[in-house]
Amino acid sequence: MLRRSLPGWLLALTLTTFAFSTDDYLVAGVLPGLADDLHVAESTAGQLVTVFSLVFALAAPVAAVVTADWPRRPLFTAALAVFTAANLVMPFVTAFPLLMALRVLAALAAAVVVPGALGAAAVLAPPERQGRYLSIVLGGLTTALLLGVPLGTWVGAVAGWQGAFVLGGLLGAAALIALYVTLPEPPRGERLRLADRLAPLTRPGLLVGLTATAFAVLGNLALLTYLAVYLRDLAGIGPTGLGVVFVLAGVAGLVGGQLGGPAADRWGAERALLMGCVAFAVVMLGLAACWPLRPAPLVLVMPLLLLWSAAAWWIPPAASARLLRLAGPAGQQALALNSSAVYLGVAGGGAAGGLLLGTLGSGALPLGAAVAQGVALALFALTSRWAPGGRGSRR
């Protein structure tokens, strides 16, 4: 039963998303030492994260269109080889511009593989398990926060920032081998013309759905980016307590993500999305209601934080399954655009949260997150017009 539920290629795809996500966060854990060794300001070194995210967001849709008809296994293994080499060369780098160039290469490889991994999972999954399989591959992203980032930080403390990037390279090599050995080629459908590959850019339902994804992520990151400030002001939680909160919230997010996919299979992606978005907004209102009680007791705040994390990670598998239904044969291009929407939401959440923090104070963050999630929910509902069988769908 376990083999049927978790085929080897699915575990390999999950390892791949884990490797890329861990690598994306490595810089944060080794930033001071890296900046000192390369004689740049920490703010300058932090741009390695910005460049990685920006390159990924811009390149993922282009890569999905260009490589739509390429065989998956050689494409993924070639991109992972580039990613692995870009990380393993890091210890020999002594100039910051070269380091930046290597991060661009790693981001380009991620832009090819991550949306493609989700697309392969969706195509290879049995129809009744598509949401479950998507949630497992997306679980690699959550697990990176729980295991990969702390491990990378520890390796960086022991072996320097160079050792952390070697870890990223080794994870890439492991993913490369696993995919090469286990990944079957998805069935080749009808060859799509360029116009068909670009279809996600012209379908109103997809564009609305992508905008909804961006708002959902924006609402989450508006609070998450400034969570340390918010919890300090709300409950007097310091750095030690914050570490415990992040670990517990990460576990809750992993659980929520693994439940969101099966819920989409069982009840339909639309209903699962509704449940996740409503739960998220209700939890944000609950956190807002705690503000007059400050310093609020942790026994009251912690369950809300865990529910928040679970709801936030419940949404992506259901949203991806919904997007695939809207996209039809252009599913991989739609997933690539969805990845870009996520990164835009991350950037927008940091900006929106900073604006709220600077003008209204940290107490306004949950309310702002609830409003953004309400907008996302309304947009997700609007996509029903273009869903197959919906009022605005096109045959």
From TrEMBL:
| Pfam short name (any one) | MFS_1
Its record classes its membrane topology as: Multi-pass membrane protein
Q: One MF term from GO for this chain?
A: transmembrane transporter activity
Any stretches that span the bilayer, and where are they?
Answer: 45-68, 75-98, 104-124, 136-157, 163-183, 204-229, 241-260, 272-289, 295-315, 335-358, 364-387
Q: Does the keyword Cell membrane apply?
A: yes
Per the record, its GO cellular-component terms are: plasma membrane
- Cellular localisation: Cell membrane
Residues forming the Major facilitator superfamily (MFS) profile domain are 9-386
InterPro entries in alphabetical order: MFS, MFS_dom, MFS_Efflux_Transporters, MFS_trans_sf
Query: Per the record's keyword annotation, is Transmembrane helix included, yes or no?
Result: yes
Record-linked Gene3D superfamilies: MFS general substrate transporter like domains
Per UniProt, which keywords does this protein have? Cell membrane, Membrane, Transmembrane, Transmembrane helix
Check the record and name the PANTHER family matching this protein.
PURINE EFFLUX PUMP PBUE
UniProt name for this protein:
MFS transporter
**Species for this entry:** Streptomyces coryli
Classification from the root reads: Bacteria, Bacillati, Actinomycetota, Actinomycetes, Kitasatosporales
